[in-house]
Amino acid sequence: MEKIKVAILGSGNIGTDLMYKLLKTEGSMELALMAGIDPESEGLKRANELQIPITAEGIHGILEHDDIKIVFDATSAKAHITHALLLKEAGIVAIDLTPAAVGPYVVPAINLKDHLELDNVNMISCSGQATTPLVYAVNRVAPVKYSEIIATISSVSVGPGTRQNLDEFTLTTANACQEIGGAKSARAIPVINSAEPPIMMNNTVYAVLEENADEKAVIESIEQIVQEVQKYVPGYRLKRAPYIDIRHTPWGDLPTVIILNEVEGAGDFFPTYAGNLDIMTAAAVQVGEQFAAHILKKKGVIV
């Protein structure tokens, strides 16, 4: 079967983990190039060992290949602003794993097929991929007045790129909880924990409701979305049953849904505690596969 050639831009933690996932994915994509800017980076070295073509010329190394149709950008928000323009001019679809948010937010469990005619989509952040589905699940049953998410991740799973973009990650995650999660307002609070042994990714979601809601319906909606996410991130799960409690809020005493979630990674590159890497890259693969299949269908290839 014909496959769509794709490239990874960025040879850090996220790009390297994505590489391993793409290599084990049997679908419509072929990893044709790994691009970075540091020839001594571990990601480029590993790609070379796996006989994947590499370049240390960054985006310009990718643009030399006119057969590449999709690029996964795992660099930085600032860099992606430039990359997005260059990729658009070259007619290449950009799947943005930075918090630049040039294109619309995409969460596979919510809106996987909504933006296939566009040339740039954004994967939000690791915490955005983990918590936006939970806010969405509550909001589709009971309108959410305010959502607050606290994402706790292990320090050793957070690379320099993520640390440099922490403010952008926070804003982008909160925006996603509003724009596709449905909350009227939102806040995201990241916590980088340096505990040893490293902790697994844990997320707490508070969803303040406009009014009383059917608790059973809310819980069923949450459990359903968890099952959807588990289709591409098997280690995504609830730590306990969600529940509704009356909490004192700035708007008065209102019903609040409390959700405790953890994400265990697949261990493709980093150990399994790095669920924050896993959910981001696994979600990106799902989105890339949809774009690749869409490109093939437009060419008349039956997928």
Automatic annotation (TrEMBL):
Positions annotated to bind NAD(+): 11-14, 157-165, 276
Annotated catalytic residues: 126 (acyl-thioester intermediate)
Residue ranges annotated for the Semialdehyde dehydrogenase NAD-binding domain, each copy included: 5-118
Top-level enzyme category: oxidoreductase
EC number(s) recorded for this UniProt protein: 1.2.1.10
Key words, A-Z: Aromatic hydrocarbons catabolism, NAD, Oxidoreductase
GO molecular function: acetaldehyde dehydrogenase (acetylating) activity; NAD binding
The keyword Ubl conjugation belongs to this UniProt entry's keyword annotation: no
Catalytic reaction equation(s): acetaldehyde + NAD(+) + CoA = acetyl-CoA + NADH + H(+)
Any Pfam family: AcetDehyd-dimer
NCBIfam families associated with the record: ac_ald_DH_ac, PRK08300.1
Family: Belongs to the acetaldehyde dehydrogenase family.
Descriptive protein name: Acetaldehyde dehydrogenase
